[in-house]
Automatic annotation (TrEMBL):
Organism name: Cnuella takakiae
Family according to the record: Belongs to the Nth/MutY family.
Protein name: Endonuclease III
Enzyme class name: lyase
Residues reported in the UniProt entry to bind [4Fe-4S] cluster: 189, 196, 199, 205
């Protein structure tokens, strides 16, 4: 199977069986999504969603977050991974948005990455989810799944993965495509023991095609 055929198969499957795909973070506006994505770094969406309601109640917008005190904000997110760093990131983000962008969250990748706690992945998430821009967010799931499937070749980092993927994914599908791979990686193509036995993408998967009989037995795959 050629690389293009792999992309066609994967896209065709998701368009047919998973036409709707979106972030699992709970949010109601751009501000809430930005805060949630910053908090989600190296943390599960489920845990983030447990804590953001109280945070958004106390700090419903950039102006309120701008006035936040470190200890008060830290207390609301202390059970999320790296709470100290993330508290500083949120406070720094609010300060930058307020003082450099007139209180409005910018909507370009180049501007968003200027905010504390916002890297290229986060900026791609914000612009694609909020504004439907064709920006490919690459997290650990997208990096792993695209490599296993054979959609990317020898990509050494998220940026290389991003640049390879957008060459083959139709522009209008880019905002949705990274959600497809994220969810597939989160629930099926998991890191340590992928659920190949129940994966519908096996016919196009380079990783699966190289599995030995012993490998398949270890993954619980019944020989056909």
């Amino acid at each position: 199977m050629t690389r293009k055929e792999r992309f066609d198969f994967v896209i065709g499957y998701f368009q047919t069986f998973k036409p709707e795909a979106e972030t699992e973070l709970d949010f109601e506006n751009t501000y809430q999504l930005l805060v949630a994505v910053i908090l989600s770094a190296q943390c599960t969406d489920k845990r983030v969603n447990m804590h953001t309601p109280a945070l958004f109640h106390k700090y419903p917008n950039i102006d309120k977050l701008y006035d936040a005190q470190y200890d008060d904000l830290f207390d609301l997110i202390k059970s999320i991974s790296f709470p100290g760093n993330k508290t500083r990131h949120l406070m720094g983000m609010a300060k930058k948005v307020k003082e450099n962008f007139g209180g409005e969250i910018p909507m370009t990748v180049e501007e968003l990455v200027q905010l504390p706690g916002v890297g290229r992945k986060t900026a791609n998430v914000i612009t694609s989810v909020v504004d439907n821009q064709p920006n490919m967010a690459v997290d650990t799931h997208v990096f792993r799944v695209s490599a296993r499937l054979g959609l990317t070749l020898n990509a050494k980092n998220p940026l290389q993965t991003e640049l390879q993927l957008i060459k083959y994914v139709p522009k209008e599908l880019v905002p949705k495509f990274h959600h497809w791979l994220i969810l597939h990686g989160r629930y099926t193509c998991i890191a340590r023991k992928p659920k190949c036995a129940q994966c519908p993408l096996k016919p196009a998967c380079k990783f699966y095609s190289k599995l030995t009989k012993k490998d398949k037995e270890a993954l619980g795959i019944i020989p056909e």
